[in-house]
Structure formats: structure tokens, C-alpha cells
Design goal:
The complex is a heterodimer of chains A (183) and B (567). Chain A is mostly helical. Among the domains of chain A are: 55 residues, Orthogonal Bundle (3-methyladenine DNA Glycosylase II, Chain A, domain 3), CATH 1.10.15; 64 residues, Alpha-Beta Plaits (2-Layer Sandwich). Chain A is built from 5 helices and 4 strands. In chain A, helix 2 packs across helix 3. With 567 residues, chain B is an alpha/beta fold. Among the domains of chain B are: 255 residues, NADH-ubiquinone oxidoreductase 51kDa subunit (Rossmann fold, 3-Layer(aba) Sandwich); 112 residues, Fumarate Reductase Iron-sulfur Protein, Chain B, domain 2 (Orthogonal Bundle), CATH 1.10.1060. Helices cover 41% and strands 15% of the residues of chain B. In chain B, strands 1-14-13-17-15-16 form a 6-stranded mixed beta sheet, sandwiched between helices. In chain B, helix 10 packs across helix 13. Chain B starts with 26 loop residues before the first strand and ends with a helix. The chains are: A mainly alpha (183), B alpha/beta (567). At the A-B interface, loops of A face helix 13 of B.
């Protein structure tokens, strides 16, 4: 009886030590779920979800504070991917957050630009180059189309242009599903 | 003759329709009214134009240069004037335009000066040969258009054991390689010897499908002149897609090209007969790749093979073969199995255009399918797949957009040969689904890459703002500290100044006192005074002394006296 208690007690102590050691040794820094969610978001940092960027929205989803259908730039693809990751039901995009539209970028009408640097400060990814009283321009390849630079512009010289399909980005359409012939 | 052949799994027997275009000898196509030369006729980066609009060029002159490693130059197919450099429609399934050089022929067809290496190619080293092949702008003429010189560069420590010359031409309708083998077997064999020298290959095999007896006879006949026992001819069984590189390698050697690998990784290089002949022309005659054999066939008046200048508009080609542009329903570039239907007719022939297939609604086999039925899970597609994939699974996953699953089932190993499509009793366009899925996966991959860059940039943006804030705060703190420091030093300076002032005042007072004392001690002009004066001085002195003793009294009395006076 006594030896049994002793053995079990020792084993409990041993496993406790192992668990305690591994908990410290293999500690995961940060919340991996937030990272995983953030990886699925389109990183436009547009704030249409109601959060000040993709990472805060990912944090909110992970904390169950936000739904997975608040990201218009990601659209259905992102919602399905998030639903897959979080094991939730996919849902349609929340119309309050906006509509899913084609990819766009902005360009600055350089004739009108007065060089106020307001758009540079608004750009979340530093994709606008320029200096005070110098003409500004958008780095087209980096622009995510978040449109955050448009409201601060005092002379409305920033315009949205759709990204045109090129030979490099062209892809085959999904074959049309023909209706079944009548029985 | 080759001793043993291996049969790959799957494949389909398709009606050949090759006799349609082999009845006539190969003709030279007319020099067209204009030549449109896309800058990207190969896999890899587009070439960079070297010419300006209005410039006169000679036949074979380089008009665009390779830009990067996986790129080849482009040469003027005939002499003439550069009319334009700009966007024109190119033969691509998207129907889009790309940058092209437009050449207006002057009908003189005057060659530029060419350098021949006919005699001394065996003295050139593989690297020099590769450079010559590259500067001749040679790409794989079988259809994919991979720059040939890269295939000839297996790397320093890789030995190429076998060179396979691909004359199997397994797709229906296409006969340009067949005709080339019939008409120019010497060029193919000479080209083979050059490539063999460049690769130092031990074994050379010319593989021809056994449905081309004329081509086999022609090559055998030519081979007798060369008396080279290294060259074998493999008569491979006619089975689509026997001409596909991986299938052909398996048929000839029994070796499988690894997934994600190239034939050169297992010591094999495979080259199309057309490419081989082009290598011969480039080395022995110095001629760049400016023309090729093109099969014009299908529902057309005189189906035949033509030697066509690269850049010739296809509508002019169809006219020459007795076709009328008005009743064409569909124009397919390539064969019926793997070719692409085009959106328009004014497209140029490019280096990889092997066949122009016209569908005017006459031949039943060419017509697009009309009755797509649901999948009945018969499994015929899996039996037909030459890559041993599961086309049905790939179809379901592509259709439901479960792309990860599709990739798990090796979607990217699919060569889009169309066998599954061909055998499907429900006429499901399976390959279309795979192409869609591949495109979608690439697109998503690209988007992930872009969003990763955006995330990095955003994180850096935030880091930069934080850093600027910290820098500002630090500057502010430093300034404050400096200000406080300044005040302190000034205060101490002030104290010192005050001390100095006081000292000066004290010193001055001292000096005054001293002076006073001196003046008190020694009254001046006291000599030779009269008695009266002495008495007066004495009285004054006494009064002064009195006053010094009790100054208040005297002032009071003085005041009283004044008060009395005023009253």
C-alpha cells in the first residue's frame, strides 16, 4: 500500500517535472492562431473590416470579437479559407463592410499634385514616393488598392484604376456548366 | 534498329488524318505583305528590340536581342523596312496582344553576311556551339518553345548518356515533322551529329512512330551515307501521346523522368527533328531560325505543308492554301488534342507554330463538343492517362475548387495531353478544368506572395513610425537636458559676476576710505598761517570734533534754529 503510493507519487512528480520543463522549453511566442489568420488576409490594411489593419482584425477574429465575413478585398476566397482554418461555416460577405470588387490600384495625377505629403502619411505600406512641395507618385507594383490615400488628398488628384489583365496574369476560365438535358 | 522498346501505360489511339496534308511536297510560302514578329516567341523573358522604326534590315539580321538567360534573339525573316514596334495580337489562347516588330518586306530577300562553321564545328567546344545555337535564336520547334541552348547545358558534372531526336509527331493532322524527315533527312542527321558533339552523348536515337513508313525509309536511306553506328532508329508504336517528351523517353530507354525533374537529370536530352535541322542550318550555314515547316490542314482547299517565314500572317497562309476566311468556324493552332482555338485570323506564325488547323464545320472530329453530360464514374479517363494520374478525382476537386486536394493528387504533373478528355463518354472538358485549376492556384500563389510583401512593408511602415517617434522623443529629451545644463552654467556665471562687482565696489570704497584717511591725516596749506587763522581753524576743528561726538544734538539745534527762523 505504502510503496504503491510512493511509486505513484514519484511518477506524478516526474511527469510534473517533464511537463513543466517542456512548457518552458518549447513555449510558443505570441498567438499562432492570429498569425495563421493574418496570413490568410489580403494585407491591404484598408480598414474596411472596421479594424485599423489586417493584424488587428486577425486578433479580433481569434478573440471571437469579429466575424469572418468582414473583408471585402479578400472576398469569398478569404472567407472560405478562414472558415476552413477556424472550422466555422462559410458565410456571405457582410454588405456593411463593402462589396468585393476587382483588383485596383491608385495613380496620382501629377499635373494636379501640390506635394502636400498627406497621402504619403496615409499610405500603410509606404507605396507613395515624394517630398514636401515635390510631385508624388505611386509605386504601382506595391499598391494594394486600399484607397486610404484618397480622402486626405486636398486637391483630389488620386484616382482609382482597375488592374488590367496581362499575358502573365491571364488564366483559363472555369468551363461552363451546361444545364442537364430534360429527362 | 533499336532492340527493346518499353510501353508506357495509358494513351489513346486516335484517328490520324495525316494523309490529308502529306499528298503534296513542301512548298515555300510566298513572302507576305507584312511580317509580325512577337518579341516573345519562346518560354522565358521577351527579347529586346534592337531596331528603330524606318530602319532597313537584311534577311537574317538580328532585330531583337536576348534579355536574360532564358531568352533568345529574333532575326529578320526577309529584307525590308521596320514599319512599327508595338502591340499586335499574338497566337495565344487569351486573344491578347503583345509587343511585336512589324517588318515590311522589300521582296528582294537579300541575305545579311553569314558565318558558316560547316568544316570546323567538331573543333568548337560545347560552350561555343551553345553560343552559336543561342545567337541563331533557336527554340524547341516541337511546340513548347524552350530555348534550345539551355537543353544543351546540362552543367559541368552531369553526363548526357542518350540523345533522342523526336520525330514521333503523335498528334493527329500534324505532318510537318514527317515531311521534314522525308525531304531533308541529311539536315536532321547532320544536326544530330552537331548536338551529339555538343553534348558528348554516347547513344543517339531517332524515334519515329511506325505510322510514318516514308519518313523511316528516308532517314534509313540517308543514314547509310553517314555510316555512323552510334545512331539508332526507334520505330515506336503509334499511340498518342508517344511524342510527349517523358513518354518518349520511357518508350526508348525505360527510364522515368522524376517528378519536378528534367530529362537531363537522368542523362537524357530530347530534341525535336525540326530543332535538329535548325541547329544544322545555324552551324553549317550560319542561318538563324527565320522559317519553319507549318502544316496547314483541316477543312481547307489544298491542305499541305509550307516552309513559312516566321511572322507570316495566318490569314495569308490560309488564302494560299485555298481557304476562305469567311467560312472558318474555328482556327486551331497546334493539333486537335493539345492545340488552342484562336479568337481571330490575323495572327502571325511564330517559331513554335507547327500546325494551322481550320475548322469550317465539315469534319465531325474537329467540332467542339455540344452535349456535356454528368460524370458516370466509368474510370476510362484513369485508364487513358499516360501519367498515371486520377483524372476523375482531379476533375471533382477542380470543379469544387478544392485546389489543395487537387495538388495532393499531383495536378501539376498533368501534361494536358487531352487523353482523358478524348475518352470521356460524358464529353466533359476535363483538361479545361485542370487548366482552370492550375491558373487559379498560380493566381493564389501570386496573391500570397504579394500580400506577404505588403505585410512586410506594412510592418516596416509601423516600425518606421515607431522609430521616428522614438527618435523625436529622444531629440526632445536631449534638447531639454541641454537647456537645463545651459541655465545652470549661466547661473554660476551670474554669481561670479555679482561677486566680482561687489569686490570692485568694496575695493573702490577701500580706496576712498584710504584717500579720506590720508586727507584727514595731512591737511594741506597749513604753513605760514596767521594767529587769527590758526584760531579760526582751531575753533572749526573743535566744532567738528563736537559734532562728531554728538551729531544728533547739533542737527537738532540746527533744526530748531531753522524752525525759529521760519517762525
Amino acid at each position: 500500500m505504502f510503496s504503491a503510493i510512493l511509486v505513484l507519487g514519484l511518477m506524478a512528480a516526474l511527469f510534473g517535472l517533464i511537463l513543466g520543463f517542456t512548457a518552458i522549453r518549447f513555449k510558443v511566442e505570441g498567438d499562432p492562431l492570429v498569425e495563421q489568420i493574418d496570413n490568410l488576409l489580403p494585407q491591404t490594411q484598408c480598414g474596411q473590416c472596421g479594424y485599423p489593419g489586417c493584424k488587428p482584425y486577425a486578433q479580433a477574429i481569434a478573440n471571437n470579437e469579429a466575424d469572418i465575413n468582414q473583408c471585402p478585398p479578400g472576398g469569398e476566397t478569404t472567407i472560405v479559407a478562414l472558415a476552413d482554418l477556424l472550422d466555422r461555416e462559410p458565410m456571405p460577405l457582410n454588405p456593411e463592410n463593402g462589396e468585393e470588387s476587382g483588383k485596383t490600384v491608385v495613380y496620382i495625377d501629377e499635373q494636379t499634385c501640390i506635394g502636400c505629403t498627406l497621402c504619403i502619411q496615409a499610405c500603410p505600406i509606404d507605396a507613395i514616393v515624394g517630398a514636401a512641395k515635390q510631385m508624388h507618385t505611386v509605386i504601382k507594383d506595391e499598391c494594394t488598392g486600399c484607397d486610404l490615400c484618397i480622402p486626405p488628398c486636398p486637391v483630389d488628384c488620386i484616382h482609382v484604376i482597375p488592374v488590367e489583365e496581362s499575358l502573365e496574369t491571364w488564366q483559363w476560365d472555369k468551363p461552363e456548366e451546361l444545364p442537364r438535358p430534360a429527362q | 534498329m533499336i532492340s527493346k522498346l518499353f510501353n508506357f501505360r495509358g494513351g489513346v489511339h486516335v484517328p490520324q488524318y495525316k494523309e490529308i496534308s502529306t499528298q503534296q511536297p513542301v512548298r515555300n510560302a510566298k513572302i507576305p505583305s507584312k511580317l509580325v514578329l512577337p518579341l516573345s516567341q519562346h518560354i522565358g523573358t521577351a527579347a529586346k528590340p534592337l531596331v528603330k522604326i524606318g530602319q532597313q534590315v537584311l534577311k537574317g539580321e538580328k532585330i531583337a536581342t536576348a534579355d536574360g538567360y532564358v531568352s533568345t534573339p529574333i532575326h529578320a525573316p526577309t529584307s525590308g523596312v521596320i514599319e512599327d514596334i508595338g502591340d499586335y495580337p499574338i497566337p495565344h489562347p487569351s486573344g491578347m496582344s503583345a509587343q511585336c516588330i512589324v517588318l515590311k518586306p522589300d521582296d528582294e530577300d537579300k541575305w545579311a553576311e553569314l558565318v558558316s562553321h560547316a568544316k570546323d564545328y567538331s573543333e568548337l567546344n560545347p560552350s561555343q556551339l551553345r553560343n552559336l545555337i543561342r545567337s541563331a535564336g533557336i527554340v524547341g520547334l516541337g511546340g513548347a518553345g524552350f530555348p534550345t541552348f539551355i537543353k544543351h547545358n546540362p552543367g559541368p558534372d552531369r553526363v548526357i548518356d542518350t540523345l533522342i531526336i523526336n520525330g514521333s509527331e503523335c498528334e493527329p493532322y500534324i505532318t510537318c515533322d514527317d515531311m521534314l524527315m522525308q525531304e531533308k533527312p541529311e539536315e536532321i542527321i547532320c544536326g544530330l551529329l552537331i548536338i551529339q558533339h555538343a553534348l558528348q552523348a554516347k547513344r543517339c536515337v531517332i524515334a519515329i512512330e511506325d505510322n510514318k513508313p516514308n519518313a523511316i525509309a528516308s532517314i534509313k536511306n540517308a543514314l547509310q551515307k553517314f555510316a555512323n553506328d552510334k545512331i539508332e532508329i526507334a520505330e515506336i508504336p503509334t499511340l498518342y501521346p508517344a511524342g510527349s517528351e517523358k513518354q518518349l523517353i520511357y518508350t526508348v530507354t525505360g527510364k522515368e523522368v522524376p517528378q519536378d525533374g528534367l530529362p537531363m537529370h537522368i542523362g537524357i536530352v530530347c530534341q525535336n527533328v525540326g530543332t535538329t535541322a535548325a541547329v544544322y542550318r545555324a552551324i553549317n550555314h550560319g542561318e538563324p531560325l527565320i522559317s519553319r515547316y507549318v502544316t496547314v490542314t483541316g477543312d481547307i482547299g489544298q491542305p499541305q505543308n509550307l516552309e513559312v517565314l516566321v511572322g507570316t500572317p495566318i490569314d495569308e497562309l490560309i488564302e494560299q492554301c485555298g481557304g476562305s476566311n469567311t467560312n472558318i468556324k474555328r482556327l486551331i493552332i497546334g493539333g486537335p488534342m493539345m492545340g488552342f482555338a484562336m479568337h481571330q485570323l490575323d495572327l502571325p506564325v511564330i517559331k513554335t507554330t507547327n500546325c494551322v488547323l481550320v475548322d469550317a464545320g465539315q469534319s465531325k472530329d474537329l467540332q467542339a463538343r455540344q452535349h456535356i453530360m454528368p460524370c458516370i464514374r466509368c474510370g476510362s479517363c484513369a485508364d487513358a492517362c499516360p501519367i498515371n494520374l486520377l483524372p476523375q478525382q482531379l476533375y471533382w476537386y477542380s470543379k469544387s475548387q478544392e485546389f489543395e486536394k487537387a495538388q495532393e493528387y499531383n495536378l501539376f504533373d498533368c501534361i494536358e495531353c487531352g487523353c482523358c478528355d478524348y475518352v470521356c463518354p460524358s464529353q466533359i472538358p476535363l483538361v479545361q478544368y485542370y487548366r482552370f485549376a492550375k491558373g487559379e492556384i498560380w493566381k493564389r500563389e501570386l496573391e500570397t506572395q504579394k500580400s506577404d510583401i505588403a505585410r512586410q512593408r506594412h510592418e516596416f511602415h509601423q516600425f518606421r513610425i515607431e522609430r521616428e517617434k522614438a527618435e523625436k522623443a529622444e531629440k526632445h529629451r536631449q534638447k531639454k537636458a541641454a537647456l537645463a545644463n545651459n541655465k545652470k552654467t549661466e547661473e554660476t556665471k551670474d554669481e561670479k559676476k555679482v561677486d566680482q562687482k561687489q569686490a570692485a565696489i568694496l575695493a573702490a570704497m577701500e580706496r576712498v576710505k584710504k584717500k579720506k584717511a590720508q586727507s584727514d591725516v595731512a591737511p594741506k596749506n597749513v604753513e605760514n598761517l596767521s594767529e587769527q587763522q590758526k584760531q579760526l581753524i582751531e575753533e572749526v576743528d573743535q566744532r567738528r570734533a563736537k559734532q562728531r561726538q554728538n551729531p544728533e544734538q547739533t542737527t537738532n539745534t540746527a533744526n530748531k534754529a531753522e524752525e525759529e527762523k521760519s517762525q
